[in-house]
Amino acid sequence: MNKVKERLEALRAEMKKNGVSAYVIPGTDPHASEYIADYWKERVWISGFNGSAGVVAITMDKAGLWTDSRYFLQGAEQLHGTGIELMKQGLPQTPEIVSWLASELKAGEKVAVNPQMFSLDTYTTMKTKLDMSRIDLVSIDLIQNIWKDRPALPKKPFFVFDIKYSGKSTIEKLTILRDEMKKNHADVFVMSALDDIAWLFNIRGNDVSFNPVVIAYALVDMQKATLFIDPDKVGEENKKYLDSQNVSYEPYEDIYKALAQIGEEKSVLVDGAKLNRSLFETIPMVCPIRNTMSPVFKLKSIKNEVEIEGIRRAMIKDGVALTRFFRWLEENVKTGKVTEITIEEKLRSFRSEEENFVGESFNTIAGYAAHGAIVHYSATSESNVTLKQENIVLIDSGAQYLDGTTDITRTFPLGTPTIAQKTDYTLVLKGHIAIDQAIFPAGTRGSQIDILARKPMWNRRLNYGHGTGHGVGHFLNVHEGPQSIRMDENSTTLQPGMILSNEPGLYRAEKYGIRIENLVLVVEDKVTEFGQFLKFETLTLFPINQDLIDAEMLSDEEIKWLNSYHSRVYDTLSPGLELEEREWLAAECRPIKK
Known about the structure:
alpha+beta; 3 domains; 6-stranded mixed beta sheet; Creatine Amidinohydrolase, Chain A, domain 1; Creatine Amidinohydrolase; single chain
C-alpha cells in the first residue's frame, strides 16, 4: 500500500474515533499563505499533490481533490493510484466541495476542519452552506496525531529591510496605518498575512520558499504595535531595531492570550479573507468587529518612488542575467545534455552573479514541448526531460533582489517552428501588446481590460484558463493582491504605483505551451475633460523571441510597439554586457518588418 493510502487509512481511523464523517484539508497555513513552511503542508502530506492551489475532502469511503485548470495535468499525474479523485474546478460537471459533501453525507453528520487552516470568511461560507443540508461543521485538528515525522517550524532570525530599499520607515507606515484604522472606526487591528507584516515592519526572512517573509502575527492599536514571533528569530540587533521603531514583541503563540484580553469596548479590525477562524474565535464576542480588506494589503500594493526605482534596477540585472542564460541555452541545446532541471540550475547560477540577488521568486517553470502545456509545471527527477533541437520550450522564472522582485516568461523555439506554433504565438503576442498599450480611465478594474488580451484568441475560438495579470510585491511575494487582470470580477481598481504581470498564454495539451510575460507599472497618462487617464509602463527588459512570430498577423502599430520595446531593451542592457553578449542581444532585438 502506498504512503497516501496508509495516511488516508490513519485519518479515517481518527475521523471514526471523533464521530466525524468527512474532513477537509486546504493547501494553506494559519496565515492564508500561498507558499508555506513544511510544518503546515498537510494537504501535500495527505494527498501527494504539491500544486499551489488545491483542497482535499475525505469521507469514510471517498476522497476528492479540487484544483483549477493550471493543475489538471499535474493533478492527474500525482493523484494516480492514490484513491483520491481529481475534481476539476470550473468545469460544469464538477460539483463544488460543499455540494459534493452534501451529496455524500446525511443530515446530522459532521464535517470537520482545522480552524487554523481556514480563513474566517471561508469557514463562515462553508458553515452557512452545510447548515442548509443540516450537516454540522466542527473545528478539530485530526492531522496532528497521525503525522508522526512532522517537520519543525523554522527558527532562522529575520533581517531588517533597510529604508534605502523600502523608502519608508515602520514609524511612518504605522502612522499611515493608524489613519486608515480611524477611517474604519477600529481601535485594534489583528494582522496575520505574512507579507503584510513583513512590509509594515520592514523585516524579511527565510521561513518559506521564494517569499522572503517571517512567520509572525501582529497587533496594532493607537498606541502600541506588537509582533508575535518566535523569540529565537529576534536577537539583540533585531531587538534594537524594533525598539527604534516603537515595536514590542511577544512569543508567537501568545497572540491567542493577547486577543482574549482585548477590552470589550474596543472595536477590532480583521481581514476575514486572511485571519484564521481559530484566532477569530479567541476575540471576545462583545467586541465590535470590522471585517474588511486589510489596510496594509492596499497600502503596500501602491509602490513608492524608492521601491519603483529599486524594481527598475532589478529589471536591468535580471535582463543581463537572462541574456547570458538564453545565449548559453541556444549554444548548448545542440549537445543533447540540457534538461529542464539543468535550465533551473543555470538560470539561478546566472542570476546569482548579480548584486543583491537573494534567491528565486518562485519555482522555475521550464516546460519543454508537452510539459509547456502544464501551466504550473515543475520538473522532478521523474518528469525531467532532455531538450532536443525541435519544438519549443516555455520558461517562466523570477528572482528576488533586495531591489525588487522579478517574474518573466519567454517561449523559445529549439528547431524550426511550425505554422501552427507561429500562429498561436503571434495571437498571444497580440494580446500581450494590447494590454501593454491599454489606456483607461481612473477607476478601471483589471477585469474590465482582461478582454484585450483574449480578444485575438477568442476570435478564433481559443482561450486560456488562467488570469492575465497578478500583482507583484517589492522584494516580497511574487503573487500579491489586491489588484489583478483576470476574467473574475475584482472590485479593486488599478491605481498608479501598482505593479502587475501581463501574461496571456495558449496551451496545446500533449504538444506545447506558449506564454509571454512582462511586468508593468500603472502610471498616469493624461487628464482630459473626461477625467484622469492611466496607462502601463513596461518594467521587464528582455527581448521577445521573433522566430516564432508571423509578422503578417501583426498590425503596423503592433510592429512599431515591438521595435520600440526591443530598442529600449538593447539600449538599457547592452552597457552591462560583453561584446559577444551584446552581439547576441542585438540579433534578438533586430527590427521586425513585414
